[in-house]
Amino acid sequence: MSDKEIDLKKRSKEIFEVIKNTTFYYAPRGIIMGVGLEEKEIHSKPFIGIVNTWNEINPGHMHLRQLAEAVKLGIAEGGGIPLEFNTVAPCDGWANANIGMRFILPQRDIIADSIEAMVEAHRLDAIVTLSSCDKINPGVLMAAIRLDIPTVCVPGGPNLFEVAFTPGYKGVDVKNYDDFQSKTMCISCATAGACEFMGTANTTQCLMEAFGMTLPNAATTPAFTRMKYVIAKNSGRRVMELLKKGITASQIMTEKSLENVMTIDAAIGGSTNAALHIPAIAYEMEIDFDIELFNEYSKKVPMIVNTSPSGEYGVVDLYNAGGIPAVMNRIKDHLNLDCMTVSEKPIGKLIRRVKIMDDRVIRPLDNPVFPEGGTVILIGNLAPECAVVKQSAVGRKDLLKFEGPAKVFNSEKDALIALSKHEIKNGDVVVARYEGPKGGPGMPELVALTSNLMIRQDMTDYVLITDGRFSGASQGPCIGHVSPEAYVGGPIAIVQEGDIIKIDIPNKSLNIDLSEEEIKRRFENWKPYERDIKSKTLLKYRALVTSAAKGAILKFD
């Protein structure tokens, strides 16, 4: 066995190293051979994990089994032993507006933990990951930086919605269509892959590429194409090259590449959930992340990607326009072009010859979709730590500044009941609290409430405020992540019916018209609203989770 081969198996050779002079040596040897490997392979070839988040429940992930086969071919060609395993991969769509949504965000950390546990338990030498959807992509990146071994990420890519197959196709934005059937087809999955708008799934796939953890154009290459299979196969080959050169995740995911991630998020008008996931990834990178950095990048970089819910088109249209490399080329003056990628080429070199194929989808800098980045942070006496809004999706300029009387509810369900009874009036500021990380628990998306408010013709002037969060597809004046949350005694906990709330998105503020003395007085007899939670998973999450302003990370101290 050569030195080079020993280096490639630096981790997996530990399986035998300590016990090679004992009779117990034959136990792990015999067990590993039981998966169909020969002894000469076990000792000469590196073990490469394929982290597959495939399942039959999630349409965004149902095609990943085939992509895993492509990855295996690439690994085997490069001289490695591909070893596939799975982890959980929930679908937000199944969980929308029911108890299941409380389990979605907690699974981000479960996914990261499970990947770390499997890779460490079996001393795998490198990994290729396969993932598509919302909390799964950041969970994968969190695990990658924890493990710090050679890693290549394969995003599953976007799907097509049914509306793409209609004669009158005008993009995927529901506002492009007048009839209800066409609007429905804008959210109906016609193929495997992540929902085609710039929701959390496609946002986080694009951020994977911005980090440099994927091959070029991997994020937006459609799930159902031949090219996606080719990218998967080449990713298997590539991880072997990274292993041979000792290039690990921490050499790709650096502070400078994190700056690129923030820049790209602003330019694409990414999901507000990025304000949870980017800080959580930064925490794993041991970077102290300030949530107000979103405002700094928003001021520097306009939103130029014209995709729903802030624009007209879908992510497949973005792919046809040149994908993330084309977006990078457009905003190259704002990027750290020397950042290395898993291709072993810096971003600057990868995008040098890239062309923007459609200016309608990737707008010029002097004709943006929105003059600032999509997501911004609001601070004020109602949100001392933060609140998050997708300003590019508010829809009307006159709603960027708004004030009105509070209509207060201790759950999304209560707000929905009131809305159905027409107890919420035009001009109200709807406050739905106790839906935060601890209060929910699980910080559910308030999809049912946002969608019902949006379709109500009698509700034209309103703002929704919550310590919960929103789907990446949400439109309208929706302000989430209010921190500190109600359950831990944030000011949102003492808002009363009729209190005047003032929203000023251009000036990044969220305030309630109360004095500090009145806020303190109301807290004198305050007790948190308690739900009857029996789930051990949710109770464990409540015990460990931190503020949304810190990314709802889990801390043990």
* Rg over CA atoms: 24 Å
CATH superfamily of the largest domain: Response regulator
Structural class: alpha/beta
Helix percent band: 25-40%
Overall geometric form = globular
C-alpha end-to-end distance: 45 Å
Number of strands: 12
Instruction: Give the strand content.
Output: 5-15%
Average pLDDT taken over every residue:
94
Short key terms for the protein model shown above:
8-stranded mixed beta sheet; 557 residues; Glucose Oxidase, domain 1; 36% helix; alpha/beta; Rossmann fold
How would you describe this protein?
The protein has 557 residues and is of the alpha/beta class. The protein has three domains: 1-45, no CATH class; 46-350, 3-Layer(aba) Sandwich (Rossmann fold), CATH 3.40.50; 375-550, 3-Layer(bba) Sandwich (Glucose Oxidase, domain 1), CATH 3.50.30. It has 22 helices and twelve strands. It has helices at 3-8, 14-17, 26-33, 39-44, 64-77, 92-95, 106-121, 136-147, 180-185, 200-211, 226-245, 249-252, 255-268, 274-284, 293-300, 315-320, 323-330, 347-350, 412-420, 447-455, 516-523, 536-544, and strands at 47-52, 81-86, 126-131, 151-155, 375-380, 383-390, 401-409, 429-432, 463-466, 478-483, 500-504, 509-512. The strands form two sheets. An eight-stranded mixed β-sheet has the order 5-6-10-9-8-7-11-12. Strands 2-1-3-4 form a four-stranded parallel β-sheet, with helices on both faces. The model is unreliable at 1-6 (pLDDT under 50).
